[in-house]
Amino acid sequence: MKHDMRAILDRPSVHLLILALVSFQAYWFNISLSLFAETEGLYAIVTHTMMANGDFVHLTARGDPYYNKPPLFFWLQALGAQGFGWSEMALRLPSVLGSCGVIATTYGFGRLLFSPIAGFWAGLVVATCYAGFWFGPLAIIDPVLTFFMTFGMYAWARAYFLESSSPWYAVGCVALALGAMVKTLHAIAMPALVFGAFLWVRRDSRVLGDRWLWIGMGLLVLLLGGYYLFLGEAFWHHFFFKENLQRLVAQVGDKQTSALEAYWGSRPLHWYGYAIWFDAFPWSVILPAGMMVLWKQAIKIQRSGELWLLLWVMGYFLAFTLVPEKHERYLLPLMPAIGLVVGYVYHRFFMNKEVFPAAQKILRGMLGVLGVLFGIAVFLAPLLLQKKWFLAPEVVPLFIRICFGVGGVALLGLAIRNHIRLGLLGVGMLGIGLMLVVTVFIIPGIHAEGAPREVFLENRRWLSNSHDPIQVLQSCGWRGDEDQFYWDFYHGHFQIIGEGLSDSAAVETLLQELREQKKLVIMMTEAQYNGLLTTHENFESRIVLKFHRSKQHIYVVTMQV
């Protein structure tokens, strides 16, 4: 009976079914919720303006040319809007499909390099790590970029490990060209760096004589050359020299600091070294042991699959580290490789492969640490959610928190008793459980506390006339692209009262507006509202909505004289 169950669980069809169910929950469950984070609003503004103007080549944002990104991603969003109507789901569809494609490709990669067991666990890691289920379904470019980069690498690996001339080389080149067309040329440079380093270490030059590789290179040049010629000189001049080269060597981020200063700023050279522990959580506890086993197999025993994966992880991580501007979402293309490192550990344990004693000791210790962390999270997580997102502790039911606490204690016990296989299964259960909690309770809870769409709809409900503009007091540093998207493109127009003026002058402008209109519905920060009440008393006011932006309390206030 035990062997029959093991045989069932080892079937690729079962693997794919489980991964499909997990992917649905991670990526599709909240697809229609309000845009709320990570430049979703900015990209929606660009796509909406592109469709409204009917100009799919010369992109604009807020009336200015938008050269920061190529248009292919926005074309994909527009295609979703044409097929399913203008909605959050349509805007997120390219990212969600791309993320599902990453899971499938990672599974195939694991099967190609090691075994179906490795592929299954690698895919599960990508879907249930924090970076995967948080950034994967958002209406941003990075999930689509990650798919093209991962699929391109897979195609090259498939062609190489089949050890024969293969059109998969050409398929990989086309996929990487599409990756460059959605964001930038590092979609080609980073996989090429890994593949080139792999061939150099193995002293293998026969690939360079494969006609399909050169056919693929020709297609890549034709695609990118035609694409950039089509976009025009103004685009590629700004894109290559200002958006890419200048940001690498001269200025970085919104504060326009130098690249050198960025290495020692709030996100210094070593920032990804500890960010990755959170982004790959909870699977990151398996990484140290996985990298140790991978290193010994790749360097000492010269196994080609292990060497490819080792160079992939190290090459990508080094490249991301050397880039001055750093964001967590930029690590998405590294997540399939991290998933494969974790999947490799499961492959060696569950396929009865040798695991070095030192790696077993590290893994045992890290499983114990994870158990302790989940035990602490029962008490600490509600406080962190309240501080970061202003969520009430009750957003995650007490029963669920207790289950995680019990799971953490059980994992600690397994680590102490040296039941590593059961501990690895426990990590899988905790990873799936964490993804479920975030997608079912936390993300909907964040939206309930003040998602831009819901705030906009509530604000509009209080307007005297549905055609009145959405009004905001001054430029107070909290308005995001997502808020502006709903104000301007869903409602039609908004008005910033006192923009560019001093605090006192902005208040006088507001009062003059109030005297003329007799009644206003306006958004302002808590500090602005309290200051207004302190200095002026000849009006009536009522707070009709409270929400949060950028660690500030924001009020929607009705005012009348």
CA radius of gyration is: 26 Å
Shape: globular
Average pLDDT reading: 90
Helical stretch count?
Answer: 24
Determine the strand fraction and express it as a percent band: 5-15%
End-to-end CA span: 79 Å
Uncertain residue segments: none
Widest β-sheet, arrangement of strands: 4-3-5-7-6
Output the structural class: alpha/beta
Helical content class: 55-70%
User: How many E-type strands?
Assistant: 7
Number of domains: 3
Largest sheet composition: 5 strands, mixed
Lay out the secondary structure.
Layout: H1 2-9, H2 12-28, H3 40-53, E1 60-61, E2 64-65, H4 72-84, H5 88-113, H6 116-128, H7 130-135, H8 142-161, H9 168-182, H10 186-201, H11 211-231, H12 233-249, H13 259-262, H14 271-279, H15 287-300, H16 304-322, H17 335-350, H18 357-389, H19 398-416, H20 420-448, H21 452-461, E3 470-473, H22 481-491, E4 494-497, H23 503-517, E5 519-525, H24 526-535, E6 540-549, E7 552-560
Helix pairs in contact: 2-5, 2-6, 3-4, 3-22, 4-5, 5-6, 5-8, 5-17, 6-17, 6-20, 8-9, 8-10, 9-10, 9-11, 10-16, 15-16, 15-17, 15-18, 16-17, 18-19, 18-20, 19-20, 21-22
